[in-house]
Amino acid sequence: AFVHIVMISCYTSLVIFFIPWAAMHDAVRSDGKDVADYQSFALLTQTSLLIVVSAQMFLDTNYWTAINQFFLWGSLAVYISVTFTFLSNGLFFMFTSSFPFIGAARNCLQQSNVWLTIFLTCLLSILPTVAYRFLLIQLNPTISDKVRYKAKEEGQPTPAPYRPPARRVSTRRSSYAFSHSRGYGNLVTSRKFLRLRKPSSLFNRKEAANLCKQLIFCRI
Amino acid sequence: MLASSYKDEDGHISVSGSGAAAAAGGGSLRNKKPENTAFKQQRLPAWQPILTAGTVLPAFFIIGLIFIPIGIGLYVTSNNIKEIEIDYTGVDMSSPCFNCSQNFSWNSTKSCTCSIPFQLDQPYESNVFMYYGLSNFYQNHRRYVKSRDDSQLNGNEESLRSPSKECEPYARHDNKPIAPCGAIANSMFNDTLELFYNDPNGTKVQVPLTATEIAWWTDKHVKFRNPGGEGSDLAAAFQGTTKPVNWRRPVYELDSDPNNNGFINEDFIVWMRTAALPTFRKLYRIIQRRNNLLPTLPRGNYTLEVVYNYPVRSFEGRKRMILSTISWMGGKNPFLGIAYITVGSICFLLGIVLLIIHHKYGNRNNGADVSH
């Protein structure tokens, strides 16, 4: 896995540098002025790097909650705003030597060949990862992949319909079984299971249905 | 592709039917438990990108189908751009500029001129842009790039008198501060290039060249300012400073037009925008189009007259003059078109390969070895 990551990193670094290098070789803006200068090249490489990293995170995140969305899109938005702030007139006038990149974003990011280069770089960097993972799923599916595939084929499982239990087939389960699920700590340690009791006084029917929904191997 | 997995809503098992012991224990514990909200119990609705065949394969095909026309468009546009490069370094003995390149010395007052004839096979329409290009000139060397004082170039009086130490050793000369200081300014390109059209009936017509609008607007109006404010006498404003060591004229004599003199001289600004690669071109002049009927540069014989001031032989550099038309994607650069076509076709082929693999081997997902 380490070698795999090293290979992907090398490949991505080469792509992120050499595609802008080749695209900027003797390139000019659409109004003839320079775009192959140091600051525009740096900005181009930096922007494509950010987008590639965000895309990799998108592929790697397993559970996309609202928080993840906020932080990922937020980081891209912060990058854009920070770039334009650092390259704005105001900061240049305040701290002249520290922010010499003034105007680079406005002039460079307007050009369509810059955006086309960014798009190409990002796609070329992500393509191997996507293809590799897809191949893995096809050729070597893990059990979770297979389960997911089957679940997709059968559709979402509907919540177990509530049926009144026709017969009490031993609703008593050992405390060992219960202790494997969350929330039963109190129940298990409450000594209810030590004595034989009539099942109807132990659970009411609603609780029985609830419990059986959680336990995969419950047959009611 | 989506698998919404709602995390289980287990809540707490209500033990209301239980004995008193549990209720009492639960009462004191309840203060320390986090609230039963979706955020704190990690029950937020979640989403997971899954690479299924239904998403990945169409995506590959669509990307392939989008990229190939874009690539073809870029390549065709790039091919339609007309460009001519003329190397005038004077390396061979047969070159007209050979004598100038050999006899260079820093304090020669007589400037050396040479003229190079060339011809255009096609007429150039619309605005034609004239660039000077340098090779093997590393404007991206780190100490070189840092060797400037941006506050001095912004017209700051204090920095004018005492340049920053980044400019060393080009900060002071003869006990006076150098304006503009630094190695970048010191090595400014100072050849003069002029273009003449040889009429079919023998006369030499000078092609009019525009020297404004060649630098970025933000550079000219925001980043570079002359000391002393607008409209002041530049020679007085620069009193007490001296010109850079390798310049022939001081900075307030760069141009007779007061809007193009001093630090806001556009040639100077263009030079100060350091290039990223060792082979670069910078905009020198623009040949404006005359009217829509006549081409800007008709085909025929031309002469390039060079006032050869800039020495490049010592570091094996090369100088050239480039005439080029411009399109929406910039100058002539076939790389982007070719790259798009290549990546598009690779994507398409990869999509086909993955489709074949999916058909042959994808049924392993249906294997009966999934335990319930």
Automatic annotation (TrEMBL), chain A:
GO terms classed as biological process: Golgi organization; phospholipid translocation
Every P-type ATPase C-terminal domain range: 2-141
Highest taxon listed in the record's lineage: Eukaryota
Transmembrane segments: 6-28, 40-59, 71-93, 114-135
Protein name from the UniProt record: P-type ATPase C-terminal domain-containing protein
Subcellular location per the Swiss-Prot or TrEMBL entry: Membrane
InterPro entries found in the cross-reference section: P_typ_ATPase_c (IPR032630)
Main subcellular location of this protein, as a coarse class: membrane
Cellular component, GO, one term: trans-Golgi network
Keyword ATP-binding set for record: no
Membrane topology qualifier: Multi-pass membrane protein
Keywords per UniProt: Magnesium, Membrane, Metal-binding, Transmembrane, Transmembrane helix
Molecular function via GO: ATPase-coupled intramembrane lipid transporter activity; metal ion binding
TrEMBL record, chain B:
Topological type in the membrane: Multi-pass membrane protein
Transmembrane segments: 50-76, 335-357
Pfam name, any one: CDC50
GO biological process, one term: phospholipid translocation
Highest taxon in the source lineage: Eukaryota
Full protein name: Cell cycle control protein
InterPro entries, sorted: CDC50/LEM3_fam
Native organism taxonomy: Eukaryota, Metazoa, Chordata, Craniata, Vertebrata
Subcellular localization: Apical cell membrane; Cytoplasmic vesicle, Secretory vesicle membrane; Golgi apparatus; Membrane
